[in-house]
Amino acid sequence: MALEIKNLKVEVEDQLIVKGIDLTIKPGEIHALMGRNGSGKTTLAKALMGHPKYSIVEGQIILDGEDITELPPNERAKKGLFMSFQYPVEIPGVNFANFLRQAYRSIHEDEKREKVPTPQEEMLEALKFRNMLKSKLKLVDLPESFLDRYLNEGFSGGEKKRAEILQLAVLQPKYAILDETDSGLDIDALRVVANAIKQMADETRGYLIITHYQRILSYIEPDYVHVMMNGKIVKSGGKDLAHELEKHGYAWIEKEISQ
Ligand SMILES: Nc1ncnc2c1ncn2[C@@H]1O[C@H](COP(=O)(O)OP(=O)(O)OP(=O)(O)O)[C@@H](O)[C@H]1O
Ligand SMILES: [Mg+2]
Question: 44-57, pLDDT tens digit by residue?
Answer without folding.
Answer: 999 999 999 999 99
